[in-house]
Amino acid sequence: MSARPAILRAGVLAGALIVPLSISACSSAAKTSAAAGPATSAGSSAMSTETSSATNAMMTPFGGGCASVPASGAGSFDGMSTAPVATAASHNPVLKTLVTAVGAAGLGDALNTQKAITVFAPANSAFAKVPAATLKGLLADKAALTRTLTYHVVPQRLSPEKLAGTHKTLEGASLTVSGSGDSFSVGAGKAKVVCGNVQTANATVYIIDSVLSPAAS
How far apart are CA 215 and CA 217, in angstroms? Predict the structure, then answer.
């Protein structure tokens, strides 16, 4: 009879020792989990910030000619980004002559309904280089005008990293772009990109300082 109480006392003692050890283990696990939580969250936040910064850099226009683009309104970079390309260009005073040419050729709807294109858009100053009589004749010849304008369009979006190279145009002939970074030349006449990587709803636009000619490339 005396051995049984001794055994019971030993069992109670062992249980008393196990309970604190279990509580201590759970407490340590909880602390480890709590410490790990913020670190994981911070890591995810840093990755998200880096991804966002990289995306913004890819979408940022470049070039000295960008200073002529309106800072606000429908013709600004933000305003143009929400409209299809022909509509976006119509709001930008830098592209006024190009918009007139697109209208004369009846290409507005065709450009607006393209899903993903790159447009080399001659600035007003580019058309000013063309002799007045030549420009007047071109605007009056719808077939020639259409051929010229579609030569300025590549049927895919080209980011600055993919811009250099030879690309098939909507006109059918190929167009060669050379350069890198924020300095590019386009076509045989070496038109310069003065404001590049301008985004519209369906196009990436590179504003250039000369009108491209299919016959010269």
Answer: 6
- Taking the C-alpha atoms of residue 124 and residue 126, their distance in angstroms, rounded to an integer, is 5
pLDDT for res 202: 98
The series of mean pLDDT values per 10 residues for the chain, 217 residues long, is: 44 42 44 47 50 55 96 96 98 97 98 97 97 96 97 98 97 96 93 98 98 81
| 64-216 to CATH, choices 3.40.50.2300, 3.30.460.10, 2.30.180.10, 2.60.40.2470 | 2.30.180.10
Q: Residues 65, 194: contact at Cβ < 8 Å?
A: yes
Give residue limits of the domains in the chain.
1-59, 64-216
Taking the mean position of all CA atoms in its chain, how far away is CA 103?
A: 27
